[in-house]
């Protein structure tokens, strides 16, 4: 197959099990909850926990957001030649075969983050980011539409989300970037629902 044929058919056109899968999404979409259910089947790296536990993986504390600023280059070095499932809102920034973007209605994201103890400003900022497809856009720009899989977690239980992620890892699900839309949340006072 020539490079042109490979580009036309996409990197995953003969889907099988992927070696490296990112599970990403706005905070509050259910990444850690769903990937915890996959720990027995795959080598799952919960990146945010590793960053919190290792001072060499972050550069500073963002006082306004009460969060750590990750050192992506240090994380790349630490991950080395890894394989498995990478769980983090930053996971799409790394070299992977497939990217699962968990999506959730912005009102639900905001509620979940408030229940976790996040400030109203942080919860609202993340809800707006979700409505604007920020992480989805980054994932598509970095990896191409043919490698991105959206999963709407709004009304889904963790087990069904984990099963959908497993289907992506195993090559049993088609790419689906652009199937979930919450943009009406921004202009419509939070009244939209996802399609996917």
UniProtKB/TrEMBL annotation:
Residues 1-20 have a biased composition (Basic and acidic residues). Pfam families: AAA_18. One of its GO terms (biological process) is rRNA processing. Its EC number is 2.7.4.3. It catalyses: ATP + H2O = ADP + phosphate + H(+); AMP + ATP = 2 ADP. Residues 1-33 are annotated as: Disordered. ATP binds at residues 28, 30-33, 116. It comes from the Archaea. InterPro entries: Adenyl_kinase_AK6, P-loop_NTPase. Residues 115-125 are annotated as: LID. Belongs to the adenylate kinase family. AK6 subfamily. Interacts with uS11. Not a structural component of 40S pre-ribosomes, but transiently interacts with them by binding to uS11. Broad-specificity nucleoside monophosphate (NMP) kinase that catalyzes the reversible transfer of the terminal phosphate group between nucleoside triphosphates and monophosphates. Has also ATPase activity. Involved in the late maturation steps of the 30S ribosomal particles, specifically 16S rRNA maturation. While NMP activity is not required for ribosome maturation, ATPase activity is. Associates transiently with small ribosomal subunit protein uS11. ATP hydrolysis breaks the interaction with uS11. This is Putative adenylate kinase. It comes from Halorubrum laminariae.
């Amino acid at each position: 197959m020539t490079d042109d044929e490979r580009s036309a058919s996409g990197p995953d056109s003969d889907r099988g099990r992927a070696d490296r899968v990112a599970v990403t999404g706005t905070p509050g979409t259910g990444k850690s909850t769903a990937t915890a259910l996959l720990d027995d089947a795959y080598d799952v790296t919960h990146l945010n926990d590793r960053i919190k536990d290792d001072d060499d993986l972050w550069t500073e504390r963002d006082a306004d957001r009460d969060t750590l600023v990750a050192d992506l280059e240090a994380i790349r070095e630490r991950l080395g030649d890894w394989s498995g499932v990478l769980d983090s809102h930053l996971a799409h920034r790394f070299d992977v075969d497939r990217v699962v973007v968990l999506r959730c209605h912005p009102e639900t994201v905001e509620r979940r983050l408030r229940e976790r103890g996040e400030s109203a400003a942080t919860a609202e900022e993340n809800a707006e980011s979700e409505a604007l497809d920020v992480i989805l856009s980054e994932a598509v720009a970095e990896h191409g539409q043919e490698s991105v899989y959206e999963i709407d977690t709004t009304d889904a239980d963790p087990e069904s989300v984990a099963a959908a992620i497993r289907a992506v890892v195993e090559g049993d699900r088609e790419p689906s970037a652009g199937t979930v839309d919450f943009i009406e949340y921004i202009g419509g006072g939070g009244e939209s629902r996802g399609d996917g």
